[in-house]
Specification:
Largest sheet: 5 strands, antiparallel
Number of domains: 1
Strand order of the largest sheet: 6-5-4-7-8
Bound molecules: zinc ion
Order of helices and strands: HEEEEEEEEH
Shape: globular
Structural class: mainly beta
Low-confidence stretches: none
Distance between the termini: 44 Å
Radius of gyration: 16 Å
Strand content: 25-35%
Length: 149
């Protein structure tokens, strides 16, 4: 029996740039060109000052887990080969705490994960049309420094 296709996001006018950069292996965030407020998810108008003027910035791709759920029984059969599946909320570095991605950890990374764990983005959903950011645990400071070199 084949595994059903995984649900994928549909890029719209506001998020197309984000998804395009993910497909090139880069994580970008959007902020307001007027007041510098981070906009997540990407949107046409600033929630703080209502200006348009979106500006995109490349992010280091590291962050901190601020929420974690481990699904031992995966609800969507498309993800059954990854059970147990770790769903995470990751506060992305360099965004003043404003950009929190809902994502998943790479397979088996849940075993070392907890709220407060440091993570780095993985952008290599090989073979998929849309590359979703997923994360893996940074195990020590040395590994984190190497990530930023
Ligand atoms: Zn603004």
């Amino acid at each position: 029996m084949s595994t059903p296709a995984r649900p994928r996001p549909t890029a719209d006018a506001d998020s197309a740039y984000f998804w395009a950069k993910c497909s090139y292996g880069e994580l970008y965030g959007q902020r307001c060109g007027n007041c510098q407020t981070w906009r997540w998810p990407p949107r046409r108008y600033c929630p703080a000052c209502h200006a348009a003027q979106p500006v995109w910035e490349k992010l280091p791709g590291t962050g901190t887990i601020v929420g974690l759920v481990i699904q031992h029984r995966v609800m969507d059969p498309a993800f059954s080969d990854e059970a147990p599946l770790a769903i995470v909320h990751v506060q992305i570095d360099g965004t003043d705490g404003e950009m929190v991605l809902v994502s998943r950890l790479q397979r088996w990374e849940w075993m070392n994960a907890s709220v407060g764990s440091r993570v780095t983005v993985v952008l290599d959903d090989s073979g998929d049309e849309v590359v979703l950011p997923t994360f893996k645990i940074l195990h020590n400071k040395e590994e984190e420094v190497r990530r930023h070199d």
